[in-house]
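U., I forgot to send this yesterday:
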Amino acid sequence: MPEGLLNLLKPPGMTSHDVVDAVRRILGTRRIGHTGTLDPAAAGVMVLMVGATTRLSEFLTARPKVYRAEITFGIATDTLDGEGAIVQRGDASALREEAVRVALAALTGELQIVPPMHSAVRHQGRRLYDIARSGRTVAVETRTSVIDRFELLDFQPGDPARALTEVACSSGTYVRSLAAMAGEIVGLPACLSVLVRTRVGAQRIADALTGRELSAAVRDGRLGEVLIAPADALADWPRLVADHQAARALIHGMQLPAWAPVDAGHVLVMLEDGRLLGVAEALECDDALVIQPRRVLLGEDVLR
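Result:
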């Protein structure tokens, strides 16, 4: 079974589930997950996990994201994007570029963001979009997001006015909600009119594969060339190299004293031959560091 990550270019019009199903057919395996959904109307980088790499989902999903987002001022919709029904209009003809820059600057740092009603967040076991489609609304808890950068790239005044922005943010950020919040700051209804995800962690849109390119790679026996090693996707993490004795203990879930200098936090544990054994956590314990395995990708058979 193939294992690793795929950097795919999701086209607009497909759901994230559609993309996963298509790749399952291309690769002939069901064991595929993704590191973060994109709305059907959105496009861009979608990173898929193949095979045992799905065990690292919680770590890969948490990678930061970068988006190009167009915000339309003067129009609000029930979905907070261009796919919804217009619920409010306002005259945006007086809006100026500097006011937009000030609004975006105010939306950086740690923010409390309310997920849109038309989102996959669960409320009492039901998806919010299912509740919204039934004509109901519910109180939605805010979520903490970190917005590292919210830049204005271009501004087109008018009624409506449009702002092309770039957002660098933590995983789980709803850019639709950010667009509506920017509108609130400038005193206008606003919605997200275009969204393209340009980066997930180290995976860039310039390197993303189309479905056709992935199919060609499989057909030509080049799948191994386009699969990304999990260790490369987490290349900014510290690494420890485990000998056979340490690797065997970690495979069995045993905690070990740190055998090399490392800071507290998550670490990649590599075998001596360069393969990724899994993810561990360096923990402080009695004034010393111990290594606790969190997700192990390989079995003891690799040590024979």
